[in-house]
Amino acid sequence: MNIATDVVLIVDDDIDLLEAVALILEQCGYRILTATSGEQALEQLRVGPRPSLILFDLMMPGMNGWTLRQKLLDTPEYADIPAVVLSGDHMVLRNAPPPRCTSTLKKPVDLATLLQVVKQSCASAPDDLGG
Question: Is 128 inside a domain boundary?
Answer without folding.
Answer: no
